[in-house]
Amino acid sequence: MQHFFNFILKYQYFLLFLLLETLAFSLTIYNNSYHRSIFINSSNQIVGGVLERVNKYESYFDLNLNNQLLLKENTKLKNELELLKAQIGTSLDSGYLKLDQKYKYISALIIRNEYTKLNNYLTLDKGTLDSVKIDLGVINEKGIIGVVNNTSKNYATVISILNQKSKINVKLKKTDYFGSLVWDGNHYNILQLIDLPRQAIIHVGDTVITGGQSTIFPLGIPVGKIQYIKTNNNYYTKIDIKLFNDMSNLGHVYLIINKDSSEIKTIENTNNIE
Amino acid sequence: MNLFGYAQPMIYILFIIIYPITNKRFSFLILSFLLGLSIDFFSNSGGINAAASLFIAYIRLPILKMVSGRTEFDPVLFNIKSMVFSRQVSYLLTLILIHHYIIFQLTYFKFSSIVSVFIFTLFSSIFSFVLLLLLSSLFIDKKR
To answer: Residue A190: which H helix or E strand, with range?
Structure first.
């Protein structure tokens, strides 16, 4: 026992270093797993508060532009609403349409946007108090942005599509071939389409939309256009997609709540048990 | 901050580089760790910055000894600026390179992307070096 204490006293500096380094490494490894519920992220109250305050002053500079964007979207939505009203009016009479809202939208503001790193995260100014939950999809009027991975009372962090952990189910607008959207870490407005079956015929300029096979994103949210195709023996080795969004310039976003997600998950789990 | 797609200078390690050589080694180690951790808080990077800054804080004294060719330092009299300029440069450059390499290796987290790691490390280190050289001339008191 005496020797043991002597050992600790002699190497206490090195042992402190070892302890802290182990702590840092375990945080890093923990951070690399997809779902983490640890306090080292910007959804906590202190960091979120600082970021929000900074963003509040910065947001005055592009107020004009944002107003115009919102106005444009409002007009578009109003037109759609009128169109749908007309359609519902006719089909209600025939009696087969069941009116039920499947998706609910929450608006939020990005108070921190990253796009230069290999693994990028966003921070939003809405949290569990505004019924933001883990695994909600985040979009804006131009396309998809990411998936919520952490929440606190008033803030939430989002795994951006510019992240190695992100893999989103997408499909081609023209045909029903599905693939996955990933990012190779090079350019923040160009993502890659993988896992596309070799029989799918694609051309440069084809539009890519979300596939709707997961409960996160509904079908048909715009993603981008195919910009570059590389083939080898009829296999697609590289497909680049240019996003409609400019990931370096994001402000107001919408979170999508799928009201049926728990129901879908329950029914899928019962299949797995059998 | 990101320049030309490859250079991401990190200047917070100035604290570790110019922190006076004292006998309070423990508090220095813990402070360096907390500094890195606070950077991680804001950039959602787990413990990457904490690991790297703690490591260079730990190896700072051995490197200083190696670079300056001395074995003992007087904590009161010694000043980094009192060294020859070429020795200052090699001290600065060694710490920056080690720090940046750890950061990028942990960010990519696999050995297959070793080329990208080296490119990032090299370009970022050059940029950090220039910035830190300018900043250190502001912060270090030459007269002492």
So the answer is: strand A190-194
